[in-house]
Amino acid sequence: MSVEAATDYVRTMVQRESRGPGDIDNAMQRLEARYGLPFWTLWHLRKGKAKSLDVSLYARIRGAYLDMCRVQAANLLHEIEVEAAAGDDTNSDLADRLRAIAAEIETRRQMR
Question: What's the whole-model pTM score?
């Protein structure tokens, strides 16, 4: 657990949530609403200005990051399943690996 790790999580989450230039504040507001992470905490971490971090807040940030990873894996799995339903079964091995990754993410999320 470190401020640097939390900073990396927050920067990645904001980048993934952002819809383009000028949407950073809106992306942080969406993350605040979705995960209950305070806007200004996100701001300080994203800017690299945070000096310390409470353990419970770190756990919440890590949990939010893992949730975003879970959603991303589920979206990719859905795309592969749609292709398979349309008759393209060439990516079935990827679907199996994505299911395993999603299960591992869920296990790690519940460990917090």
Answer: 0.84
